[in-house]
Structures are given as structure tokens and as C-alpha cells.
Write a structure and sequence with these properties.
This protein has helices at about 10-20, 30-45, 65-80, 80-90, 90-110, 120-140, 145-165, 185-205, 220-230, 235-250, 255-280, 280-290, 300-310, 320-330, 340-375, 375-380, 380-390, 400-410; strands at about 170-175, 175-180. The chain is mostly helical and about 425 residues long. A two-stranded antiparallel sheet has the order 1-2. The chain is globular and about 60 Å long. The two termini are about 45 Å apart.
Length: about 425
């Protein structure tokens, strides 16, 4: 009699699969679809970070760019679902070292606080860490949201290359082309990363776009031309490294397909080489680097920062101590143009070890995704992350943190190699073609 009133429980496999369904509809309320749409628009806007929505000359509105506005809207639309996302994320292996690093940075900066300092960089770092934390929680419930977001970013880069072709918003300085007053190296890195995303979206077709996906290859020549026009050496090196790595790591069981990929890679490499030779500014900068070992003044900055590192080797001098030293040495808060050296100056050897621990876990997760799914894009985008690490400003650049979150993605295995069991159930659902 008692057993007749008991309701049968659904199979365990069904319960686990619902929580990580490919569309995310079983895990997220329907209202979260708006957050997905806003996020994709936010990713596209990363190509227009210098475009100001409000032209007020003072106050908060003066810094309200399109990217910031969409970022705020994304946060507002998704924050009601944040508690459930965090509980289901299993993201502690990535967040623990990241926030430990930020805590050390905060403590050291407060310790060396001797006067007023600009809070812009500190808040930018904090916002990017929050963005990374939110994304790796969000992607656990909607595994292809970052895949879609990266495609929207690439489409935004293609749209910007269209403005370059039309001559809209262009500026020239020393033979290098920029748009809307943005940094030439950042534009070049965005174009290179966008080309890689579009090429793999057409080749691997994770979003199931059908034959229309080959139209994604149409803007690649214009984007390559724009990247070369920026005269960015780091962007060119990162793109070439991604091209070679993609050809070598492309997985296929068919010998003829592999030979075809190698032949296509050789043709593309030769075309890029000819384009480089025709770009006078970029080729001239490469020759200058080789002949005179000129790194655009970066080597002088690195050399002048060594005394600061030597004086605070363990815990660094924080943002405040670095700002005071830079103002005294360079006359302004000059960027080190090397993230590893920057972290070393801010948080010393302890902070650098924690930061490298975090990056190692992220890279390991991207490698596991490649091994389990044959996914190339997370690994190829690391060439642009490495370029930014060695000669850019990663801590305050949103795109890099989105790339790192995409590397974490929704891995089938935990980042610890000793754990052999799947970290989450493999969903038995078709891939997402919509944003919801």
C-alpha cells in the first residue's frame, strides 16, 4: 500500500543531463535569453571600446563607451541568476588563484599608499576579474554561449575592417593606421584573432551554421589588410603562430584531408608572406627590430624597472608604489608593456607565482578541450594572449579575459590530470544555433 503512493524517480542520467543541456534552457530561466543576446552584442562591441556613447566632457558619462554600457546591461540582465550559476559552475580551481592574486594586489597597494592615485586601473582589473568569473559560471549552463560570443566578436572585427575599407574614422601616425583613436597594436591583435575565429567557425562548424558559414571567409582579406596597415609586429607574429599551430594540430583520420590542410596552410602562409612584404610600414619595423634590436623603447622601460623589482622582490610595491616610481622615473604612469614584469612589479615573486598558477590551469583546460573535442580555437587564441603577455596590457583588456574564459569553457574533465572521471555529464543534445 505504501509503495503505491511513491512516484517513480527519473533516471539518474536524465537528471544530470538536464542540468548541463547544450541549449541551457533546462538550467536557466527563459528570461536569461535576454542576457545571452546582450552578451553577444557586448562581444561585438569589444572592437569599438573607444566609441563613446555620451559626449559629456566631465563626470562618469565622459567615460561611458558602448562596450561599458553593454557590459552593464549584461550584468543587470544576468545578476538575478548569478547565485544558481555559481553553485553549478565548479569553477573554484580557476577562481581561487585569481582572487588570491587580486587580494594580494589590493593588500600591497594599500600598504604602499602614500597619497592619491588613479583608481581607474584598479577598478578595470576588478571588473575584468568579475567578468571572467561570471562567464565561466554562465558557460556551465549554456555551453555554447561563449562559442557564439566569440563569433559575434569576429563579426564585429569584420565590420570594423569594413569601416577601414570605406576610410571611416581612420587616423595615421608614423605610417600606422588606427581607427577611432584606438591603439594600433590592439587593433592588429583584434583583427588577427577575428580572422582565426571566422576561419575555424567555417572549418569546424560547431554552431551548425550550414553551408552559409563559408560566407564568414569573405572578409578575411580585408581584415588581413587592416592588420598589416596597423604596423603591429606583435599582431603579425601572433597571427602567424596561430596559423602554423592550427595546421599542425588539425585533427582528422583521413590522410587526404590532412594533406589538403597542410597544402592550404602552405598557400595561406605564402599569401600572408607576400602581403607582409607589400606592407612597407610593417616590414620596415621588422627590419628595424632585426638590425638595430629596436623594441620601440620597451627594452629601456624594462631596464629601468629592474631596480623597483630588486627593491621589493617578494611582494612587490603594488599599484601605488609602482605609480610613484614610474612618475619619478618616466615622468608619467608608463605601462611596462610586459604583463609578467608588470605583475612582478605589483605583487613580487609571490604574486607572479599565483598568476602563473592561474594561467597554467586555464591553458590546461583549453588543452583538455582540444584532446576531448578536437576544438582548436581555445589553443590558437593563446598566441594572441601570449603576445599581449609579453608586450601589451592584459590586466585591463576585456577581450583577453573573454578568451581565457573561453579556454575554460565547459570542459568534460577537471583541470587536474590525475582525475580521470568526467567532471560533468556529457549532454545528449544537439548544438545550439540560437542565442537563447
Amino acid at each position: 500500500m505504501e509503495t503505491a503512493n511513491l512516484k517513480p524517480r527519473p533516471p539518474a542520467r536524465h537528471r544530470e543531463t538536464r542540468s548541463v543541456s547544450a541549449s541551457g534552457k533546462a538550467a536557466l530561466p527563459r528570461q536569461a535569453a535576454m542576457g545571452n543576446i546582450v552578451f553577444c552584442l557586448f562581444m561585438a562591441s569589444l572592437n569599438f571600446e573607444m566609441f563613446s556613447v555620451l559626449s559629456v566632457g566631465y563626470g562618469v558619462g565622459a567615460n561611458m563607451t558602448l562596450t561599458k554600457l553593454l557590459g552593464v546591461l549584461y550584468f543587470i540582465t544576468m545578476v538575478p541568476h548569478f547565485p544558481s550559476l555559481v553553485r553549478a559552475s565548479g569553477s573554484a580551481p580557476f577562481l581561487r588563484p585569481l582572487w588570491l592574486f587580486f587580494g594580494l594586489l589590493t593588500a600591497v597597494s594599500l600598504f604602499y599608499l602614500q597619497g592619491p592615485f588613479s583608481k581607474t586601473e584598479y577598478l578595470s582589473i576588478f571588473q575584468n576579474l568579475v567578468l571572467f568569473s561570471f562567464l565561466i559560471a554562465h558557460v556551465r549552463k549554456n555551453p555554447l554561449i561563449l562559442e557564439t560570443g566569440m563569433l559575434f566578436f569576429a563579426l564585429g572585427a569584420a565590420a570594423q575592417s569594413g569601416l577601414f575599407l570605406a576610410g571611416i574614422g581612420l587616423e595615421e601616425s608614423g605610417g600606422r593606421i588606427t581607427i577611432f583613436g584606438d591603439n594600433a597594436n590592439i587593433i592588429g591583435l583584434r583583427m588577427g584573432a577575428g580572422m582565426v575565429v571566422l576561419a575555424l567557425a567555417a572549418a569546424q562548424n560547431r554552431l551548425k551554421l550550414g553551408k552559409w558559414r563559408y560566407l564568414l571567409l569573405a572578409p578575411l582579406p580585408i581584415m588581413l589588410q587592416f592588420m598589416l596597415a596597423t604596423g603591429s609586429r606583435v599582431a603579425m607574429i601572433a597571427f602567424a603562430l596561430a596559423l602554423v599551430t592550427g595546421v599542425l594540430l588539425f585533427k582528422t583520420k583521413q590522410l587526404l584531408v590532412k594533406i589538403g590542410v597542410l597544402a592550404l596552410g602552405a598557400i595561406c602562409s605564402y599569401a600572408v608572406w607576400l602581403s607582409l612584404l607589400s606592407a612597407e610600414t610593417l616590414s620596415g619595423r621588422f627590419l628595424e627590430t632585426i638590425q638595430s634590436r629596436n623594441l620601440a623603447g620597451r627594452d629601456d622601460i624594462w631596464r629601468n624597472l629592474l631596480p623597483l623589482v630588486a627593491s621589493h622582490p617578494l611582494f612587490g610595491s603594488g599599484l601605488t608604489g609602482y605609480a610613484q616610481y614610474a612618475n619619478t622615473t618616466f615622468g608619467s604612469s608608463t605601462s611596462p608593456h610586459n604583463v609578467l614584469l608588470e605583475v612582478l612589479c605589483y605583487t613580487g615573486l609571490v604574486g607572479l607565482s599565483i598568476f602563473l598558477w592561474f594561467l597554467g590551469r586555464v591553458f590546461q583546460s583549453g588543452w583538455h578541450r582540444h584532446q576531448a573535442e578536437g576544438l582548436l580555437l581555445p589553443l590558437l587564441l593563446w598566441s594572441f594572449v601570449a603576445g599581449c603577455l609579453l608586450s601589451g596590457q592584459m590586466l585591463v583588456w576585456k577581450l583577453i579575459w573573454c578568451i581565457l574564459a573561453y579556454n575554460v569553457g565547459s570542459p568534460l574533465r577537471k583541470p587536474n590530470r590525475r582525475v580521470r572521471r568526467p567532471a560533468v555529464a556529457i549532454p545528449q543534445a544537439k548544438p545550439v544555433t540560437s542565442l537563447a
